[in-house]
Structures are given as C-alpha cells and as structure tokens.
Amino acid sequence: MNDALPPSFAAEHKSDRAARLAGMLTTAFLAVLTWPMWRYHALTGETAPLVGHVLVLMYGIAILRTRGLAFRGARDWLPLTLGPFLYVELRWTIAGIGLPHHDALVLHWESLFFPSNPSATLAPRFGFPLLSEALHLAYASYYLVVYVPLIVLFVKRERAAFTHTMLAMTLVYGACFITYALFPVDGPRYLVGPAFAPHGPVRTFVLALLDRGSSRGTAFPSSHVAASVVSALCALRHQYRFGLVVSMFTAALTVATVYGGFHYAVDALVGVILGGVTFLASTALWDALPSRAVHSATAA
Fold first, then answer.
1. pLDDT digits (tens, 9 = 90+) for 40-91
2. How many other β-carbons are positioned within 10 Å of the β-carbon of residue 161?
3. Which terminus of the chain, N or C, has less C-beta within 10 A?
4. Where on the phi/psi map is residue 199: left (φ > 0), alpha (ψ -120 to 50), or beta?
5. H and E: helices and strands count for the chain
6. DSSP assignment, residue 217?
7. Which of these, 274, 219, 263, 218, lies nearest to 118 by C-alpha position?
8. What is the pTM of this model?
9. Does residue 5 have a pLDDT over 80?
10. Do the beta carbons of residue 13 and residue 292 sit within 8 Å?
11. Domain residue extents for the chain
C-alpha cells in the first residue's frame, strides 16, 4: 500500500516548493530585464549597471541550483535579497524600455476619485510638527514592516509561515515592478516636489533617503503600501498579535505616502487593493501546492 510522508516532512516539502517557486519567479524576472538593461547600456554607454545586473542574475541562478540544508536559508531569502537591487535598477530598466510616463492619466484618475488633491493639500491643512514627524517615521518604518515579520518567523523556525509570506511578497513586488516597467509614473515628488509639511529631523532623513535611493517612474501603484499590506495580512494570519502591530504601522504608512507628497492618493489606493488581491492569490497558490513528495510503496 502507499504510505504518505509524516506531516512534518510533508510541510517541509511544501515549504521547499514555495521557496523554490518564489526564487524562480524572482530570477526569471531578472533574466527578462537583461534586455532593457542592455538597451540602457547601448543608449548611454554606461557599463556598470549591466555588469551589476548580470552578476546578480548569476548569483540568483547559482543559489537556485544549490541543494541541501547548507544553502536553504539563502534560497528561502533569495527574493528579498534581490528585491532592493531590482528596485534600484528600475531607474535603468524603465529608461531602457523607453515607454512614455503616464502622470497625466494618473492625475486624471486622481481628480475623479480625490478632487481635493490630497498629495498637495493634506500636509498644509494638517501642518502639525508632531503629526508630520510621526507620519514620516511611519513612512520610514517600511523596511521594518516588510522584513521584521519574516525575520521573526525565520528565527522561530516557522518555515511554512515564512515561505508563504515570502511567496506573497514575491508576487506583490513582481506585480509592482512589472507595472513600473510598462506603465511608468513619476509621482508628485518628481513633478512638484515633496508636500509642504513641517520640517523636522525625521522628515529630513526621509527626504535624504528618497533622494539617494528612489527610482523615477515607480509611483503607481505604491509598492510601499502594497508590500506593507501583504506583510500585515500575512502577519495577521500567522502571528496574529504581532500582525495587529504591523497593521497599525501599515495604516500610518499608507497615509504618510500621501501626506508627504511621495505618491498620489490613487497610488496608495491601488496599492491597498493590489496588496489585498495579491495576498488572496498567494494564499490560494500556497494552498494548491502539493504537500506531499513521493509515496513509499510497500507490499501489503
């Protein structure tokens, strides 16, 4: 008769499949972006971005080809290891593809849904220094919102919850980055500058961080909001009490993206919707992954 693997082995097998799928999707996206990176090199003569891209792609392929427990952590973390690099190089891939930017269309949507133009009016209307600093701090908490829940699950060795969350993050970043490449939108910070919010040390830090690390054309939808929503929903599913804290930061971050003039309100709205849809899609995909490997045949 056929004997199924014990539940612990079945869960590990499912987690391995999810981790490998997330890594393969991330590496495949890198491979596809080689063409616009080459075009950017051909247009500008800059070699460093293309060389860096190829090296990171080679790293992704090498990690995916590893087997055994020694490199399992590297495989599990591969999407968010490569994620920051993928975001930074969007400044080159968007230019390499060369499609027009669509701020005029998004501004039209903004006027339909938010005629008060919140990205320009929220900060002056509620120009309280303490509120401004708190919201900019919430905006700066983005990396904590994304990475800390995963770190907690990883340290606690809750691998099924970890790989489900990582798969969800891979899907939401993939959806955002593909949209940026094909439908670039600069956002209000590039067109008119940050909102007229009260100055303070936290706001100064956030503006300096954005000046150094942001990529033009990545406003719609807000990946800050979309990824934070996914992180919060996954945390609520796998670590409920901690998820409540993550959800509060996510709500404040969503408001902060508009208050600071970093995104149009419609960018944040679509980010919330995309985050929710991606969480549902990733959960359905996770549930559909086989939870058993092979069956061992024994004579009856």
1. 999 999 999 999 999 999 999 999 998 888 899 999 999 999 999 999 999 9
2. 20
3. C
4. beta
5. 15, 2
6. T
7. 263
8. 0.91
9. no
10. yes
11. 2-297
